[in-house]
Design a protein that fits this description.
OB fold (Dihydrolipoamide Acetyltransferase, E2P); mainly beta; 89 residues; 5-stranded mixed barrel; single chain
Amino acid sequence: MRLGRVIGTVVATQKADSLAGKRLLVVQPVDEKRKPIDRPVIAVDTVSAGPGEWVYFVEKREAAKAFPGPELPVDVTILGILDRLEIEP
C-alpha cells in the first residue's frame, strides 16, 4: 500500500463498461513525511474520497483484485481515507 493525496477528479467521456458508475480521482503519491514523490496517478475511488484528502491505495494486480467478481481494467485503486499517520522512529 502507498500513501497519497487526492489532487483532482477525472471526467471521462468514455471508459470501459465495467467502470460505469465508478469515480476516477487524481492522486499524488507521497512518502512517509507526506512529501510528493513520483508523478500523479489516476485511481478508481472505492471510499468516496474528495480533493485534499489523504488516502492509501494499491497498484497493479492488487488494484484489480479490490473489486468482487471479474477483474476490472484498473492499475490503481483507493482503498481508504487516512485518519491519522504515526511513524515510529
